[in-house]
Amino acid sequence: MNSKACNVIPPRQSANYKPNIWKYDFIQSLHSKYKEEGCRSRAEKLTNDVKQMFLEAADLLAKLELIDRICKLGLSYLFEEQIREILVDTVAFLKNDTGCLEVKDLYATALCFKLLRQHGYEISQGI
Hints:
Layout: H1 3-6, H2 24-29, H3 37-56, H4 60-73, H5 80-96, H6 106-118
Helix pairs in contact: 4-6
């Protein structure tokens, strides 16, 4: 293959977008009721309730299911510390205890594997 043909970069086409009709000052002047103190305090209360749910989760499977639900809701950024602690404990448990989970079913194993891989832990498929 000719090396000259590989180095050809096609010209980038313009999208020809229309100018924005919304002015910056108008966007900044919009009011949202969700920025008020009532909504802010309610959000903090709910966040604390979920943190309490992490503490009250009895077994590993309950903790993993809670993490999975929070991730599916897109709220994992609010609970990164709690999620990290649980996953670090899970990895330590798997390394020290011959790699078997407390609940020996396919669902628990698959959920554990999925969450550990999603959060960047190098875990063997043989857990």
